[in-house]
Write a structure and sequence with these properties.
It is a single-pass type I membrane protein. The protein has about 750 residues and is α+β, with helices and mostly antiparallel strands. About 20% of the residues lie in helices and about 25% in strands. It is built from 15 helices and 40 strands. The strands form 15 sheets. A six-stranded mixed sheet has the order 1-17-23-24-7-5, with no helix packed on it. The protein has a five-stranded mixed sheet with strand order 11-10-9-12-15, sandwiched between helices. It starts with 10 loop residues before the first strand and ends with a helix.
Length: about 750
């Protein structure tokens, strides 16, 4: 899985631990929340208590500043201009009046990685590109990540320089014999990987002072005991400069002799320092640089030189004369951190080939097999980040075409020749540097000369800050700078318009103007009197605010409906609900929309009630229901108008004598056929409905007859089934009784036979 890596600090060596990825995976830092960016509880914009726009945008990427001069309400502090974008819009600040700058990135140098094969035309190392891009510029806003892709592709047939540094103390005698034939074997094996390989050799023993060696004349000539013939002790010798001649390596190494010293730790760190900083004498090229350090003992480090009276710290400079380190008696051993820095600065990858006692992990035999393993390690990628400011956070996400493996002590990206590794790097700043000056950071693959240079610029002020008017008359006769819709007071001035001196803020006269109705409470006990004006306190909930001339208002103590402030259909202003359109009531819970009261005849409440808050209240007690259309006690329409229809259509009925007087309240349309009756949607449909058509008798009778027949058949089938079941039970009972009778007959015969035999 992908893992973010915190590179907080000045120098960071980045090892990508346990990463697994494939070409199909596309991790992006924006899709995740970085564990290194600080997320304060609550609204970080309000918590910042920003007094001006620059402070606001540094509080977080979600923060905006409303520069509308009329935005603040009575009692609100200047810092309430700083809030999350959605909150500012909700509070009435137009989008174009919100300062919300964003970062950007620009690639300055983007030379494509080199694609070549061993058989292709030879290129100089400086003409080979393995990392892309090479230079870019990032403009950062606090809390807002900027991401870019970094591509690395190891060039095939890339040159390699390998320097073998060996401990020649007496205990390494057997190992020297193995190294004598290393050159030819290694050249042969490395030719399978690269056609441009060079090898060098150096040796070390110890500082040439007491108590590290014996300084008696005899021991200076031959430090070994008995009949052993050893060379004089020395600190470090560059025996063979890097060369492509493997035979020469074998010859010179074969001429080396073992030496000796008194103590167990060796002076190998002195030798490593000289190999790292003496590039010209060693013959390092700007290619892959490998240093193999072979020993069977521990090491001396900074401070151990005091035993020999050496107190000057190692200066990290080259002191080789004729290939010999001449200042071992003058400078102390280097520290581990100093040594690591120099190796990193010179792009040298160091491999410690030590005995089992000191590092069991590095057991390899034969010796050239170790070197091939070393080059295998060099095909892994170790990123080094330089000059990282403390307020900067980097998150690295890897995308590679192979599975990640774990190698020895560190975790790396394995690189296959011709394969390509992609990194997505996210850079986030928290705050701004002093004076908002730009910074430069570098990313370098360890062991390679190429690097990525990133120039960082920081957004520390708003654009509206450039339009600020110093000593503006809007700020009480020039006592401040008017910028971004607010006054930024000069030193010693306070107040929204910088109208007061900081020395005169807490006076009785000013406090008097902050008391409502000459009461005793200053700013209703929920605010501070600043320059004779109440500045209300903030709530823990950023959506809740106090306001008003005396902080007597708030936006959260209004009537509720359905457990919602203002019923969810309005906003609370000074403890009174201001309802949305089409809503009314103290809690905005009364709808003015009549659609819910519309009956099926398109009349509000069926013409028999009034619509109040979206609900019908029926005025006719006979009618009920949501739209006053239900009348349980009302007669049918035909029954109600029967007498009038009879008198007007046929001149009959009980009202034939009073027809004109009692039955003229509706229109009557005569038709010859029932099918010609007007329908409700017709224009000729009368005011009063016609009686509904009578039922069709034939289908009803047919249905009843069919039902009776089916029920009869069903009953007959059930009776028949019951009779069959009953007959079977009776037959089974008969068979059983029959068998019992036969058994009784046989038993009687058997008893008679037994009696006759007994008589005999």
């Amino acid at each position: 899985m992908n893992r973010c890596v915190n590179t907080r600090g000045f120098n960071r060596l980045l090892t990508l631990q346990g990463l697994r990825c494939s070409t199909a995976h596309s991790a992006h830092p924006d899709s995740v929340s970085s564990p290194f960016v600080f997320h304060p509880e609550g609204n970080e914009c309000i918590n910042a208590n920003a007094k001006f726009c620059g402070e606001c945008i540094q509080a977080g990427a979600k923060c905006g500043w409303c520069k509308d001069p009329t935005f603040l309400k009575q009692g609100e502090t200047v810092s309430t201009r700083c809030d999350e974008l959605q909150s500012l819009l909700k509070r009435g600040c137009d989008e174009e009046m919100i300062e919300n700058p964003h970062g950007m990135q620009k690639i300055l140098k983007n030379k494509a990685v080199t694609n070549r094969r061993k058989a292709a035309e030879k290129l100089k190392p400086e003409d080979i590109t393995q990392i892309e891009p090479q230079k870019l510029s990032l403009t950062l806003r606090s809390g807002e990540p900027q991401s870019f892709d970094l591509k690395f592709k190891r060039a095939e047939d890339y040159p390699i320089d390998l320097y073998y540094l060996m401990d020649l103390s007496y205990s390494m005698k057997d190992d020297l014999e193995n190294v004598k034939n290393l050159g030819t074997s290694l050249m042969l094996e490395m030719s399978k990987i690269t056609s441009d390989f060079r090898i060098g050799f150096g040796s070390f023993v110890e500082k040439t002072v007491m108590p590290y060696i014996s300084t008696t004349p005899a021991k200076l000539l031959n430090p070994c005991t008995g009949d052993q013939n050893c060379t004089s002790p020395f600190s470090y010798k560059n025996v063979l400069k890097l060369t492509s001649d493997g035979k020469k390596f074998n010859i010179l190494v074969g001429q080396q002799q073992i030496s000796g010293n008194l103590d167990s730790p060796e002076g190998g760190f002195d030798a490593i320092m000289q190999v790292a900083v003496c590039g010209e004498q060693i013959g390092w090229r700007n290619v892959t640089r490998l240093l193999v350090f072979s020993t069977d003992a521990g090491f001396h480090f900074a401070g151990d030189g005091k035993l020999g009276g050496i107190v000057l710290p190692n200066d990290g400079k080259c002191h080789l004369e004729n290939g010999v380190y001449t200042m071992s008696h003058y400078y102390d051993y280097p520290s581990i951190a100093h040594l690591v820095q120099k190796l990193s600065d010179n792009n040298i990858q160091t491999i410690f080939a030590v005995t089992e006692e000191f590092q069991p992990v590095y057991q390899v035999s034969p010796l050239y097999g170790l070197i091939l393993t070393i080059y295998s390690l060099s095909k892994t990628l170790l990123l080094h980040f330089y000059l990282i400011p403390f307020f900067l956070f980097l998150a690295v996400f890897g995308r590679c075409p192979v599975t990640i493996n774990i190698h020895l002590v560190f975790f790396f990206y394995p690189l296959l020749l011709r394969s390509q590794v992609m990194f997505s790097i996210s850079v986030t700043s928290k705050g701004c540097p002093m004076q908002a000056k730009s910074e430069t950071i570098k990313i370098k693959p360890l062991g390679f000369t190429e690097e990525v240079e990133i120039t960082l610029h920081f957004i520390c002020e708003c654009e509206c800050n450039k339009e600020g008017i110093k000593n503006s008359q809007l700020c009480h006769f020039g006592n401040g700078t008017y910028e971004c819709g607010a006054c930024k007071c000069n030193e010693g001035r306070v107040g929204r318009q910088c109208e007061c001196s900081s020395n005169d803020v807490a006076t009785e006269d000013m406090d008097r103007t902050c008391r409502k109705d000459n009461g005793t409470d200053i700013c209703s006990n929920i605010g501070d009197c600043v320059c004779g004006t109440c500045e209300c306190k903030k709530r823990d909930n950023p959506d809740e605010r106090y306001s008003g001339l005396y902080c007597e208002c708030d936006n959260f103590n209004c009537d509720r409906s359905g457990n919602k402030l203002c019923g969810g259909h309005g906003r609370c202003e000074c403890r009174v609900c201001v309802c949305d359109p089409m809503w009314t009531g103290s809690a905005c819970d009364c709808s003015l929309d009549n659609n819910t009261c519309m009956a099926s005849n398109k009349q509000i409440c069926n013409g028999r009630g009034t619509c109040e808050c979206g609900t019908c209240k029926c005025t006719d007690p006979k009618f009920q229901g949501p739209t006053c259309e239900t009348c349980p006690t009302c007669p049918g329409v035909c029954t109600e108008h029967k007498e009038c229809v009879q008198c007007r259509a046929f001149g009959t009925g009980e009202k034939k004598d009073t027809c004109e007087r009692d039955c003229s309240y509706f229109n009557l349309i005569k038709v010859k056929d029932r099918d010609k009756l007007p329908q409700p949607n017709d224009a000729s449909y009368p005011v009063m409905h016609y009686c509904p058509a009578g039922p069709d008798i034939i289908p009803i009778v047919a249905g009843v007859v069919a039902g009776i027949v089916l029920i009869g058949l069903a009953l007959l089938l059930i009776w028949k089934l019951l009779m069959i079941i009953h007959d079977r039970r009776e037959f089974a009972k008969f068979e059983k009784e029959k068998m019992n009778a036969k058994w009784d007959t046989v038993s009687a015969w058997n008893r008679n036979q037994l009696r006759e035999r007994g008589a005999r």
